[in-house]
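wait is this the right file?? whatever heres the structure
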């Protein structure tokens, strides 16, 4: 497999910090001439914990406590998958460390929120959960020292499942550095049982490319126009990347090229020769900048593109909408803040959400102290983006 020819390489006490509260945000949307303003007050939902509780559905599948819980649709059988980051067999990060990523599954999802997510089996065997990828944590697996591989998003299409991940070199990077080793895409042709890595990896901080805009991806999905749309940003899963700057870019690729690992076939949404256009003649331009952001998620829900992201500076999860991936995004709206959910992060859009006016978000919460509760994901329903 050839190395992509058009992928730019921009220069440039605990894993999670205790986050400030607040609701203000000023964000610039490039390419649309839109300036964000301070949005309205945040919603006050409490959320439903999905793990880190004795004898819950996660623990019955072997996962006691974990974070992220990134949801995706398993189109081959109509079920749902949830991909966790660093996970433990016991409550409050107790018991054995399981690694990352870890996957739990659900046979059906109630978009109304009346019945919260309940996990019915685990991967990779359908029995007790364990780490999906075959690599050693806190070791050199042939690319350089890595602590863990953290999933950013998951998608299934055409009989293959994909997880985009970041390999973390340090959870406490110096100011101005993102702390990553590299990012990559792993795939499974048996729906999560066995996994392979594509040969090409996007180099990260300790491989000489600090602040790569290919660090964290979100699969917006395959649009009716046939393209797979992907948003990506700098790695800031540590929430300590002081140079993140909220920068987000957009590219698209034909699903067949993506499956073949022909990542150089991507088209980039770029401002070129005085206008915004899809092109292979220039790298993607920044479409969003602003406060430092952590995890983000973009999904097409009922014909509307919805974005959620964790604002590290404000300690809040915001949402925006757009009619198309390359259209102007609405002003940011705060949905869940540290005022009501202390030490939150994540905020992944469930692709089975009822509508853009009734989203389900999967939100993580941890105070940054190993062994203290909670270390879980919570389900928030009925959120109007």
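ok assuming it is, sequence goes like this
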């Amino acid at each position: 497999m050839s190395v992509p020819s058009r992928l730019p390489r921009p220069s440039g006490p605990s894993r999670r910090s205790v986050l400030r509260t607040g609701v203000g945000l000023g964000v610039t949307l490039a390419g649309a001439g839109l300036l964000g303003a301070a949005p309205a007050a945040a919603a006050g939902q409490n959320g439903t914990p999905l793990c880190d509780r004795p004898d819950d559905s996660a623990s019955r599948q072997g996962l006691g406590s974990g974070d992220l819980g990134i949801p995706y649709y398993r189109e081959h059988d109509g079920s749902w998958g949830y991909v966790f980051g660093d996970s433990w067999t016991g409550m409050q990060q107790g018991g054995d460390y399981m690694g990352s990523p870890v996957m739990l599954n659900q046979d059906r999802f109630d978009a109304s929120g009346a019945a919260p997510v309940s996990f019915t089996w685990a991967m990779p065997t359908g029995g007790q959960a364990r780490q999906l990828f075959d690599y050693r944590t806190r070791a050199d697996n042939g690319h350089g020292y890595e602590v863990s591989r953290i999933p950013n998003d998951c998608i299934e299409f055409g009989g293959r499942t994909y997880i985009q991940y970041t390999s973390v070199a340090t959870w406490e990077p110096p100011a101005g550095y993102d702390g990553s080793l590299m990012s990559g895409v792993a795939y499974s042709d048996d729906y999560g049982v066995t996994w392979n890595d594509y040969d090409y990896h996007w180099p990260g901080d300790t491989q000489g490319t600090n602040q790569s805009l290919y660090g964290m991806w979100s699969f917006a999905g395959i649009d009716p126009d046939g393209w797979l749309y992907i948003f990506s940003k700098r790695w800031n899963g540590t929430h300590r990347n002081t140079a993140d700057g909220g920068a987000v870019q957009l590219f698209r690729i034909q699903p067949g090229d993506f499956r073949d690992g022909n990542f150089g076939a991507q088209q980039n949404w770029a401002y070129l020769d005085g206008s915004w256009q899809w092109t292979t003649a220039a790298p993607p331009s920044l479409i969003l900048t602003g406060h430092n952001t952590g995890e983000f998620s973009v999904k097409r829900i009922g014909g509307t593109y919805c974005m959620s992201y964790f604002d590290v500076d404000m300690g809040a999860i915001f949402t925006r909408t757009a009619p198309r991936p390359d259209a102007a995004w609405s002003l940011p709206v705060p949905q869940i803040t540290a005022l009501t959910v202390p030490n939150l992060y994540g905020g992944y859009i469930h692709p089975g959400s009822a509508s853009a006016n009734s989203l389900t978000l999967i939100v993580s919460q941890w105070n940054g102290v190993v062994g203290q509760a909670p270390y879980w994901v919570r389900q928030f329903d009925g959120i109007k983006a």
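The chain is about 0% helix and 40% strand. so i think its the right one actually
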